């Protein structure tokens, strides 16, 4: 049985959220020095992968690529590949915080605006008191501040580096400094801090179950309509894309 579904050159492992979390739990427990990079792959990432050679290298070398986006799931099923479910950056982060509260994991958060970052930390402190927040920084830093942020992360050595600066900026940052960050696992989580802080309201569960979370977000943030135009383009291209052998796999 094929253990992954290939979508426009990217191999998505056929893993549930729980199975993905187990992999990350095992990585933390192994105490390896090499950074484990998790890419949450949505249609935008897949489309950028086609033309961004650096992003292609990043994804091919990633420890784990998850199917973050109902478009990925739908295309896989139409092509007979059957990815089991979405594994989004937001869902993964919330579950990691729940697990971290039991296992006393440490986190560093990079991303969102200053007010949202601070509010998110307050909420995490309240809901997950046994999680250690080693540090945080907003995502609107100047270029000349970047090295200092990297040095701070390195000195703190978190179990998880959570980067919420948007894709593919987060992926490029993690890859650029992967040998300097001194974190066990790094994950780009898009706008997850906006959701945890309450700045952006996540779709109700019924919308999520109906695979209409994208529509809910568009209603909440009409300015996203230009970004949403990529979805039909992705669907058409992905359905007729001729896949080749090879590609990324889970690296443990």
UniProtKB/TrEMBL annotation:
Pathway listed: Cell wall biogenesis; teichoic acid biosynthesis
Record's catalysed reaction(s): UDP-N-acetyl-alpha-D-mannosamine + N-acetyl-alpha-D-glucosaminyl-di-trans,octa-cis-undecaprenyl diphosphate = N-acetyl-beta-D-mannosaminyl-(1->4)-N-acetyl-alpha-D-glucosaminyl di-trans,octa-cis-undecaprenyl diphosphate + UDP + H(+)
Function, in words: Catalyzes the conversion of GlcNAc-PP-undecaprenol into ManNAc-GlcNAc-PP-undecaprenol, the first committed lipid intermediate in the de novo synthesis of teichoic acid.
Designated name of the protein: N-acetylglucosaminyldiphosphoundecaprenol N-acetyl-beta-D-mannosaminyltransferase
E.C. number: 2.4.1.187
Protein family: Belongs to the glycosyltransferase 26 family. TagA/TarA subfamily.
Enzyme class: transferase
Keywords (A to Z) from UniProt: Cell wall biogenesis/degradation, Glycosyltransferase, Teichoic acid biosynthesis, Transferase
GO molecular function, one term: N-acetylglucosaminyldiphosphoundecaprenol N-acetyl-beta-D-mannosaminyltransferase activity
Listed InterPro entries: TagA_TarA, WecG_TagA_CpsF
Source species of the chain: Heyndrickxia oleronia
Pfam annotation, one family: Glyco_tran_WecG
UniProt-listed GO biological process terms: cell wall organization; teichoic acid biosynthetic process
């Amino acid at each position: 049985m094929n253990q992954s579904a290939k979508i426009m050159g990217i191999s998505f492992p056929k893993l549930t959220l729980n199975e993905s979390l187990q992999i990350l739990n095992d990585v933390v427990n192994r105490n390896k020095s090499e950074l484990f990079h998790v890419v949450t792959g949505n249609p935008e990432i897949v489309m950028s992968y086609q033309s961004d050679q650096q992003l292609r290298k990043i994804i091919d070398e990633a420890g784990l690529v998850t199917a973050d986006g109902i478009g990925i799931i739908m295309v896989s099923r139409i092509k007979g590949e059957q990815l089991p479910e979405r594994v989004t950056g937001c869902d993964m982060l919330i579950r990691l915080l729940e697990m971290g509260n039991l296992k006393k994991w440490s986190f560093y958060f990079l991303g969102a605006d200053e007010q949202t970052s601070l509010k998110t930390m307050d909420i995490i402190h309240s809901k997950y008191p046994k999680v250690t927040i080693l540090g945080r920084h907003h995502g609107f830093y100047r270029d000349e501040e970047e090295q200092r942020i990297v040095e701070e992360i390195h000195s703190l050595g978190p179990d998880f580096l959570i980067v919420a600066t948007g894709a593919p900026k987060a992926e490029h940052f993690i890859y650029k400094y992967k040998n300097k960050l001194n974190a066990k696992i790094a994950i780009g989580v898009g706008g997850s801090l906006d959701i945890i802080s309450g700045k952006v309201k996540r779709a109700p569960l019924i919308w999520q179950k109906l695979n209409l979370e994208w529509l809910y977000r568009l209603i909440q943030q009409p300015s996203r309509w230009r970004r949403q135009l990529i979805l039909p383009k992705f669907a058409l291209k992905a359905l007729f894309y001729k896949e080749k052998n090879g590609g990324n796999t889970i690296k443990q």
